[in-house]
Amino acid sequence: MAGKKAALQCLFNRGINRSKGIITRGFSGSPEGLPASSSSSHHLITLESQRSAHNYHPIPVVFSQAKGSSIWDPEGNKYLDFLSAYSAVNQGHCHPKIMKALVEQAEKLTLSSRAFYNDQFPVFAETLTSMFGYDMVLPMNTGAEGVETALKLARKWGYQKKKIPKDKAIIVSCCGCFHGRTLAAVSMSCDNEATREFWPLLPGQLKVDFGDIVSLEKVFKEKGDQIAGFLFEPIQGEAGVIIPPDGYLKSVRDLCSRYNILMIADEIQSGIARSGRMLACDWEEVRPDVVILGKALGGGVIPVSAVLADKDVMLCIQPGEHGSTFGGNPLASAVAIASLEVVRDEGLVERSAQMGELLRQQLLKIWQQYPDLIKEVRGKGLFNAVELKSKALSPITAYDICLKLKERGILAKPTHDSIIRLTPPLCMSPEELQEGSKALQDVLEHDLPKMLREKPKTVSHITPSTCDRCGRDLYGAS
């Protein structure tokens, strides 16, 4: 066993150095010596298509090995990860400290259920609440479970503390939001693919435009006595890294306090250093009543989610009213502690802010070169997006652009046909960021003209985006 631990430590040895005032961190070593996959990428993609539900449309690349910000497929081809599993691997793939915590805990105890105590969850609870400044945590596993927990907690608080009449509690959320794939989460969605033929949707929902404080106040004035919570993403991720106007978060805080409504921040993607702050709400120094965390909380190793709140809110839920067999399990708790320590000890908040500025400078230069193709570059920290002009690209889509990026060794994923998210691990080096930007420039300069010549103009994969709920075109052609 000692030999296995030594080999693991050797495999993930890494170095930290500083260059030109920028922290450059990488994992030393390479995948040589690791056992190669016995199956080809083509075979594995075909097998998944035949044996798995078709609920995803992946970029056709197979992950076989990963370290830091680098990925290798079964054939040994190397790629740079510019998605980070939707921010689940902020710390980098297979971080040695997180892997060490996983291995050591897995050898001792993996699950107790909450029917008993274990020696890791209390430490995780203390670490998390102290780091974020809340009294208590309710642990779950996936981000969607965290959202469900926050919704139940808000309703419970609304009936117990605010005295909302039975069956009248309302949750307000934002157009363009993404909070998961459960029925409660999609009931708040404006994505027709997420809602159609999953009816009936959960009642007790009201929608407002993200960033529109006037509309939010109007809803609060009209229905405030029945509203338990306002659930929102401080930066909308799936919508295309949509950033609210300056002052919006502070205004939301003021309105929620005035109307006695829980301010519930879904920081599953935007939190844990992704935006250049520990929480995206920290950009305006506001403190939500409830915070939902997930993804990077597990360091890309194991699902971990959590809901944070103070006692006057959290203790509305009593034994038997909510829970999870695996929530707070010792393996996840040990991994989450290590994941948070990596963020703190390696200065990933500051690094995200610094690297994000560098990446946007590179992207803005590309925008200046191709103003007829690019509508906007936006982001905070390493939470960024390039929005393309779909009319100028038609019939080419952002997915087609991502396929060409993949051919150039860069892995990114589109959203809503015309937006490419660029959210690399926070350990990515300046040189790797430059490599990603250069690949995008090369695709627009060399690949796109050929794609436009070869793809008939009459063919288009761009689908209508008029919302069934509100009748508006959220992601309209531009």
From TrEMBL:
Pfam families: Aminotran_3
A GO biological-process term: defense response to bacterium
Cofactor(s) required, per the database record: pyridoxal 5'-phosphate
Gene Ontology molecular-function annotations: identical protein binding; ornithine aminotransferase activity; pyridoxal phosphate binding
SUPFAM superfamilies: PLP-dependent transferases (SSF53383)
Cellular component, GO annotation: mitochondrion
Pathway annotation: Amino-acid biosynthesis; L-proline biosynthesis; L-glutamate 5-semialdehyde from L-ornithine: step 1/1
EC code(s) of this entry: 2.6.1.13
Record field: catalytic activity: a 2-oxocarboxylate + L-ornithine = L-glutamate 5-semialdehyde + an L-alpha-amino acid
Keywords, comma-separated and alphabetical: Aminotransferase, Pyridoxal phosphate, Transferase
InterPro entries: Aminotrans_3, Aminotrans_3_PPA_site, Class-III_PLP-dep_AT, Orn_aminotrans, PyrdxlP-dep_Trfase, PyrdxlP-dep_Trfase_major, PyrdxlP-dep_Trfase_small
Protein family membership: Belongs to the class-III pyridoxal-phosphate-dependent aminotransferase family.
Protein name: Ornithine aminotransferase
